[in-house]
Amino acid sequence: MKRNFIKVQDVLENYKSSVYEKDVERFLATYAPEIHIYDCWGNWEIKGISHWRANVEEWFNGLKVDGVSLNVEFNDLVIEENMNLAFVHCTVTFAAHDIKSGDKLRQMTNRFTFGLNKKDDFWQISHEHSSLPINMETGKGIFNLR
Fold first, then answer.
1. Domain chopping of the chain, boundaries
2. pTM
3. Which residues belong to any copy of the SnoaL-like domain (predicted)?
Protein backbone atom coordinates (compact mmCIF):
# COMPACT_ATOMS: atom_id res chain seq x y z
CA MET A 1 0.00 0.00 0.00
CA LYS A 2 1.64 3.23 -1.12
CA ARG A 3 0.36 6.53 0.20
CA ASN A 4 0.73 9.90 -1.43
CA PHE A 5 2.49 12.12 1.07
CA ILE A 6 2.54 15.59 -0.48
CA LYS A 7 4.18 17.27 2.54
CA VAL A 8 6.84 16.04 4.95
CA GLN A 9 4.34 16.71 7.75
CA ASP A 10 1.97 14.18 6.08
CA VAL A 11 4.62 11.49 6.61
CA LEU A 12 4.92 12.35 10.29
CA GLU A 13 1.15 12.43 10.81
CA ASN A 14 0.83 9.00 9.16
CA TYR A 15 3.62 7.71 11.43
CA LYS A 16 1.72 8.84 14.53
CA SER A 17 -1.72 7.59 13.51
CA SER A 18 -0.56 4.24 12.13
CA VAL A 19 1.38 3.49 15.34
CA TYR A 20 -1.70 4.34 17.41
CA GLU A 21 -3.86 2.10 15.20
CA LYS A 22 -1.14 -0.59 14.98
CA ASP A 23 -1.57 -0.62 11.19
CA VAL A 24 1.58 -2.26 9.80
CA GLU A 25 0.82 -1.60 6.13
CA ARG A 26 0.01 2.06 6.64
CA PHE A 27 3.09 2.53 8.83
CA LEU A 28 5.39 0.91 6.27
CA ALA A 29 3.89 3.07 3.51
CA THR A 30 5.95 5.98 4.88
CA TYR A 31 9.21 4.17 4.11
CA ALA A 32 11.22 3.68 0.93
CA PRO A 33 11.77 0.04 -0.12
CA GLU A 34 15.53 0.47 0.44
CA ILE A 35 15.12 2.00 3.92
CA HIS A 36 18.25 2.09 6.09
CA ILE A 37 17.61 2.36 9.84
CA TYR A 38 19.87 2.78 12.83
CA ASP A 39 17.57 1.80 15.68
CA CYS A 40 18.35 1.79 19.38
CA TRP A 41 16.44 -1.48 19.94
CA GLY A 42 18.41 -4.66 19.52
CA ASN A 43 19.77 -4.20 15.99
CA TRP A 44 22.82 -2.28 14.87
CA GLU A 45 21.02 -1.51 11.63
CA ILE A 46 18.13 -2.60 9.47
CA LYS A 47 18.34 -2.55 5.69
CA GLY A 48 15.33 -2.94 3.45
CA ILE A 49 11.60 -2.81 3.97
CA SER A 50 11.21 -6.59 4.45
CA HIS A 51 13.55 -6.58 7.46
CA TRP A 52 11.87 -3.46 8.84
CA ARG A 53 8.47 -5.13 8.35
CA ALA A 54 9.50 -8.02 10.62
CA ASN A 55 10.48 -5.57 13.39
CA VAL A 56 7.30 -3.51 13.03
CA GLU A 57 5.07 -6.60 13.05
CA GLU A 58 6.74 -7.82 16.25
CA TRP A 59 6.38 -4.35 17.84
CA PHE A 60 2.70 -3.91 16.93
CA ASN A 61 1.78 -7.52 17.82
CA GLY A 62 3.38 -7.06 21.24
CA LEU A 63 1.26 -3.96 21.82
CA LYS A 64 -1.89 -5.86 20.82
CA VAL A 65 -1.11 -8.81 23.11
CA ASP A 66 -0.41 -6.44 26.01
CA GLY A 67 -3.65 -4.50 25.42
CA VAL A 68 -1.73 -1.26 24.96
CA SER A 69 -2.30 1.77 22.76
CA LEU A 70 0.71 3.88 21.94
CA ASN A 71 0.55 7.63 21.47
CA VAL A 72 3.38 9.26 19.53
CA GLU A 73 4.27 12.90 19.98
CA PHE A 74 6.91 14.80 18.00
CA ASN A 75 8.61 17.62 19.92
CA ASP A 76 11.33 20.12 19.07
CA LEU A 77 10.55 19.36 15.43
CA VAL A 78 12.86 20.83 12.79
CA ILE A 79 12.12 20.21 9.11
CA GLU A 80 14.53 21.37 6.43
CA GLU A 81 13.72 20.56 2.84
CA ASN A 82 14.49 21.41 -0.73
CA MET A 83 12.90 20.14 -3.92
CA ASN A 84 13.76 16.45 -3.47
CA LEU A 85 15.38 15.95 -0.07
CA ALA A 86 14.26 16.63 3.48
CA PHE A 87 15.96 16.35 6.83
CA VAL A 88 13.94 16.09 10.04
CA HIS A 89 15.20 15.96 13.60
CA CYS A 90 13.14 15.91 16.77
CA THR A 91 12.43 14.14 19.99
CA VAL A 92 9.73 11.49 19.88
CA THR A 93 7.75 10.53 22.96
CA PHE A 94 6.04 7.16 23.00
CA ALA A 95 3.38 6.93 25.73
CA ALA A 96 1.75 3.55 26.36
CA HIS A 97 -1.80 3.46 27.73
CA ASP A 98 -3.94 0.56 28.89
CA ILE A 99 -6.69 0.23 26.26
CA LYS A 100 -9.40 -0.69 28.78
CA SER A 101 -8.72 1.83 31.55
CA GLY A 102 -6.90 4.53 29.58
CA ASP A 103 -4.27 4.70 32.33
CA LYS A 104 -0.76 5.67 31.26
CA LEU A 105 1.52 2.70 31.82
CA ARG A 106 4.90 4.05 30.71
CA GLN A 107 6.56 6.58 28.52
CA MET A 108 9.91 7.11 26.86
CA THR A 109 11.49 9.78 24.72
CA ASN A 110 14.03 9.09 21.97
CA ARG A 111 15.95 11.38 19.66
CA PHE A 112 15.08 10.82 15.99
CA THR A 113 16.53 11.91 12.68
CA PHE A 114 14.73 11.18 9.42
CA GLY A 115 16.12 11.55 5.92
CA LEU A 116 13.39 11.75 3.29
CA ASN A 117 13.47 11.81 -0.46
CA LYS A 118 10.81 12.68 -2.95
CA LYS A 119 9.89 10.01 -5.46
CA ASP A 120 7.20 10.65 -8.08
CA ASP A 121 6.33 13.90 -6.22
CA PHE A 122 5.68 12.13 -2.90
CA TRP A 123 7.81 12.03 0.27
CA GLN A 124 9.14 8.81 1.81
CA ILE A 125 11.57 8.06 4.62
CA SER A 126 14.80 6.62 3.22
CA HIS A 127 16.87 6.83 6.43
CA GLU A 128 15.92 6.80 10.11
CA HIS A 129 18.15 7.05 13.14
CA SER A 130 16.91 6.80 16.71
CA SER A 131 19.15 7.25 19.72
CA LEU A 132 19.28 7.74 23.45
CA PRO A 133 21.92 9.49 25.51
CA ILE A 134 23.96 7.03 27.59
CA ASN A 135 24.64 7.27 31.30
CA MET A 136 28.42 6.92 31.34
CA GLU A 137 28.45 5.39 34.85
CA THR A 138 25.94 2.62 34.17
CA GLY A 139 26.23 2.26 30.40
CA LYS A 140 22.42 2.35 30.18
CA GLY A 141 20.26 4.50 27.95
CA ILE A 142 18.52 7.52 29.44
CA PHE A 143 14.89 7.32 28.32
CA ASN A 144 13.23 10.43 29.71
CA LEU A 145 15.75 13.23 29.81
CA ARG A 146 12.99 15.57 28.58
1. 8-131
2. 0.91
3. 8-134
